[in-house]
Amino acid sequence: MRYRIGVDTGGTFTDVALISEESGETFITKVPSTPENSSIGVLNGVKQIIMETGIQYEDLNFFIHGSTVATNTLLEKKGAKTVLLTTKGFKDVLQIGRQTRPKLYDFRARRNEPLVTRDLRLEIDERINAKGEVVKEIDQNQLTELVEKLKDVDAKAVVVSFINSFLNSENEIIVKEFLEKSLPNVSITISSEVLPEIKEYERTSTAVVNGYVMPKMEYYLRYLEEKITELKIPSELYIMQSNGGVINTDTTVKMPVRTVLSGPAGGVVGGSNIADQTEYKNLITIDMGGTSLDTSLIENGKPQYTTSSKIQDFPIHVPMVEMHTIGAGGGSIAWIDSGGALRVGPESAGAVPGPVCYGKGGTEPTVSDANAILGRINPNSLLGGKMKIDIHSAKKVIKEKIADPLGLTVEKAAEGILKVVNTNMVRGIRVISVEKGHDSRDFSLLAFGGAGPLHASDIAEELGCKNIIIPPNPGIACAMGMLTADVRHDYVQSYISELSQINLEELNNKLSKLYRISRDELAAEGFKKEEMKFQASLDLRYKNQAYNLNIELDDMYVTEVEIRNAVEKFHSSHNKVYGFSRLGEELEVANIRLISYGLIKKPKENINNNGPNQDLEPIGNREVYFEGSFYNTSIYERSDMYSGNVIKGPAVIEQLDSTVIIHPYQEALVDIYHNLVIQNVKKKAGRELKNAVLKN
């Protein structure tokens, strides 16, 4: 029997999902993350699930990994010593940026220092003009002198970003080829390969991020590849991209910037699968782990994408799932500010030392400690008994640092911690919903991550969401989503023209070129013609506008009818995003884009339509704190539940990877895909709920 394995490295835990390609049977496990070397946690997780299931390493037919190495390297500024080569006169592009203030009303606010200091930004006397013509060629003597300088400064990575190289990459390629021969152990990045688009600051910043993280990412992936080979796993190592697609290791090593949201993107892919299966096409996803909350939006079954993002104020312009991240997780630390107000996060206890209740040396009160005190997580152990819970120490630290200073009981203080962190999360969710023109009342809340189902009901009520959906394995949702992702490649070609003056023949020629490149790349990866899918689009804007909207095309060959349809879509999208549109105003094309998919055969769906198990009984009871008082609450085991089961609140549903909270006024139903659907209304009749949900 053949299996697929997905591993997602988080700030606190490393999640592992294993699924049979033939039967759809799923196995999961979690191990502590190892921040000092995340590959150790990955290998520990693989070995543990192999031991628990008894299968052989040789049975692992597909291995995919969601890596945080690129993100952490950037956040911690622990990347390689990088040199930036620019056109003469443009060495300060990174420093100047867009001259926007990071915080409008904070006069002391300062932008982050560039990843490449000024002494490591070197100029080359070359030039491409605005028409893409070579005005000044590369001088070989200049390159010889340059190599000596790079040796003197002991550069580990070199980034080449010349003006107008998005129109003509000839000079960048000459420099790259020369440096690869002269400095074979130095990583080389050129901007025309990473981001062939107009806007020199964003293009340079994206290329610099790519080069800065490349050496560390290459070492990590090659090491992991070696260990996988030693275990005799037959699969190539695949990596999850920020855009929800899959790439192989060689591509990742060249373009690590594509993985900055690697793990969270897997959860959004899983959310798209739920939208495909059920009637819930509009979803707000929350992925709450030990360190942070990642939230995104799925509308009409499709995730929202962006080509413009920032990590710690460093612009990164590559296609990725549109996501907002805040420091709100189970390990988020509660504290009292100078004004006496209770605050939570963004600082986290992380994996080490972790929350106090984990007994690993934590000394600060956290969200997990508050949940433990209120009875919302198992007071004895987590992870199926592998992690013991120290309630006494959690109560002591919250009493000393939160409750006593605020004059509250320990329970009230713990409840306050949860209310504050929930408010923080709601504020973050509104960034990708309300602030983007979406009404959260039209969406269901899809909650996953180890801590997401603990907080989902409170968040959904605040947002006014229709209901809450908890997938079968919420704590492993990102790893599970990776197992169903397709190979994906994104291509872009800068093409600037007024739409009324567009040369359709020229446009189609450029699109055909991208198509041939993408088709050949998929073929080289072993995909047949029937396993390929392509999606073309145009970046459009009002004339003289600075920002684009991406508009999908219905066909790979662009006609006048297609252009008219694109114009209508643009005005509609602009009105939704910005609240207005200017019908009749001239539009411009900025870029041509093409996405190619290598369709991977999906594992068999594990559907349970055997009907309700009438003998469903709680495995116990305990006192759980809801809205100011303790309730005698039924405790259920998730694995005991069948399609059609209705669970009335208050209830706690426990499983290896997470805990689900159902409030006193709620009811939940198990659907045929094992999802728990919680109605976000009071006193909903069980039969009405059952009829509504089983329409799936």
From TrEMBL:
It comes from the Bacteria. GO terms for cellular component: cytosol. One of its GO terms (molecular function) is 5-oxoprolinase (ATP-hydrolyzing) activity. Residues 4-181 form the Hydantoinase/oxoprolinase N-terminal domain. Residues 203-490 form the Hydantoinase A/oxoprolinase domain. Signal peptide: none annotated. Residues 504-674 form the Acetophenone carboxylase-like C-terminal domain. This is Hydantoinase/oxoprolinase family protein. It comes from Oceanobacillus bengalensis.
